[in-house]
Amino acid sequence: MEDFIFRALLAAIGISIIAGSLGCFVIWKRMSYFSESISHSALLGVSLGLASGLGIHFGLVLVGAVFALLIVVLQERKFLSNDAILGIFSHIALSLGIVVLGLVGGANTDYFGFLFGDILSITNTDIVWVYSVLIVIASLLGFFWQRLLLLTLNEELAKAEG
Predict the structure, then answer these.
(1) Are residues 90 and 127 in the same domain?
(2) What pLDDT, in 10s, does the model give residues 50-77?
(3) Most CB atoms within 10 A, among 24, 44, 56, 120?
(4) Do residues 23 and 90 share a domain?
(5) pTM for the complete prediction?
(6) Dihedral sign, Cα of residue 154, residue 78, residue 88, residue 84
(7) Quick one: pLDDT band at residue 36, thresholds 50, 70, 90?
(8) Alpha-helical regions (H) of 106-123
(9) 49 and 115 share one domain
(10) How many structural domains are present in the chain?
């Protein structure tokens, strides 16, 4: 098997484990557009990572975490409906990402690669990132499983339990 196929397979397995384990909570909370909003914020993370010189991965993690936190805080305040909040954040992040990427990257930037990716171009560093995130998420899910499950299925009961 070619190296690039093997790396793509390793990355796909790691990503599917992450997506499957977190996807259950997203569906149970009826927040199916949450992941779309966070993925649109990834373009902003890429462009800010390139602009700052700190790297794409740092920008992705930072912007994704900030957007996820803002979305959750706004959803708890019941300021707007969940779909409205997700739609607003999704389009703000995508448009800001395109603008910043245009300012930073110029005309030679590969927008298609950033928007849709190419699993066959996975590097060893990317695989390390995927499995590092997998270990962190698996550890957090293992530690907080009962509380997360209770919070997801019945918020009032979770608040009463502490």
Answers:
(1) no
(2) 888 888 888 888 998 898 898 888 888 8
(3) 44
(4) no
(5) 0.71
(6) positive
(7) confident
(8) 111-116
(9) yes
(10) 2
Same domain, 19 and 85: no
DSSP-derived secondary structure for 29-60: TT-TTHHHHHHHHHHHHHHHHHHHTS-HHHHH
105-121 confidence digits (pLDDT tens): 655 666 677 677 788 88
Give me the mean pLDDT over the 80-84 stretch. 81
Q: Which residue segment(s) compose the domain that 38 sits in?
A: 34-121
The rounded distance, in Å, linking the Cα atoms of 29 and 22 is 11
Considering the domain architecture, whether residues 117 and 101 belong to the same structural domain is answered as: yes
**Calpha distance 11→20 (Å, rounded):** 14
Residue 20's CB: how many other CB atoms inside 10 A? Answer: 9
